[in-house]
Amino acid sequence: MSKNNTNPNNKSLSNSSLDITKGNNGGKNHLVKTFINGFFIILCASVAVPFISGLFASFRPGQMLIRNGLNLNLDFENWSLVNYSYLFDGSTGYLDWYKNSLIITIVSVILTLIICYFVAYGFAMYHFKFKNLLFFLVIATMMVPFEILMLPLYKQMISFGLIDTYAGVILPGLVHASTIFFFRQYLSGIPKELLDAGRIDGSSEYGICVRIVMPISKPAFSAMAILSSMGAWNSMLWPLIVLRSAEKFTLPIGLNTLLTPYGNNYDVLVAGSIFSILPLFILYLIFNKYFVEGMTAGAVKG
C-alpha cells in the first residue's frame, strides 16, 4: 500500500506564501487606485478652478479684476450684478450675438447630424464597389488643416454670394469626417438581421434607415449633438472671415470686439463668457443619459 507523503508543514508554508502574495497584490492595487484617484482629482481641479474664479470675477468691478486678476476670494461686499445688467441693456449687442450663435449652432448641428448619419449608414450597412477606398478618402480629409481650405472656401462663398450670411457660415462645415466615422462605427455594431427582418416585413430601405435604425441610434445622436454643438458654438475663425455686419456677429466675435486699443471691458467680457456656457451646459444635462453610452458603444463591435 502506498503512503501519503504530504507534509502538513508544507501546506502551511504554501498557504502563508499565498496570503503574503495576496497581501502584496492588494497593497499594489490600493496604491494604483490611490494614484488614479489623485490624478483625476487634480485634473478636475485644473478645470474647475479657472471656471469658478471666472464666475466670481463676473460679479466684481473691472478695476478689481485688473488689479487682482482672477482669484477665489469671496469678497461679497464688492460683488454686484452691474456687469450682467450692462451686458443685457442693449448697449453691447450681446443679445444679438447670442441669437446669431444660437441660430447658426442649431441649424448646423441638425443638418450635420442628418447628413453624416445617412452617409455613415451607407458605409456601415451596404457593400458596394470602392467602399473601403471612399471611406479612406473621407477619413483622409481629417488630415487636411482648415487653414489650407480657408482661401478656396472663401472664394466659393464669394462666387455663391454667401458672404455676410448665415448660410456662408453653416454650409462649409456641414459634413465632418469625424462625425461620419463615429456614426459608422456605431452602426457597424447593429446586427444586420435587424435590417433583414425589416425587409421581410415589407419595409423600404428608407423606412429601415429612418424607422428602425435611427431610433436605436439615439446614444450616437446625443453624443454627436453635444460635440458638434461645442464646435459650432465656439467657432470663431470661419465666421470672422465670412461675416461683415456687426449685427450678424456670433458670440465669440462679439466678445472679442470688447477688447479695443481704446479700452478693454474685461469685466463685461468675463460676464459674457460665463453666461455663454449656459446653452452647452443645458444641452449636456438633457443628453447626459445617453452621452457616455454613445461614446463607448461604437468602440465595441458585436
UniProtKB/TrEMBL annotation:
Subcellular location: Cell membrane
PROSITE patterns in the cross-refs: ABC_TM1 (PS50928)
CDD domains: TM_PBP2 (cd06261)
Membrane topology annotation: Multi-pass membrane protein
Entries under InterPro entries matching the protein: MetI-like (IPR000515), MetI-like_sf (IPR035906)
PANTHER family given in the database record: ABC TRANSPORTER PERMEASE PROTEIN MG189-RELATED-RELATED (PTHR43744), ARABINOOLIGOSACCHARIDES TRANSPORT SYSTEM PERMEASE PROTEIN ARAQ (PTHR43744:SF2)
Name used for this protein in its record: Carbohydrate ABC transporter permease
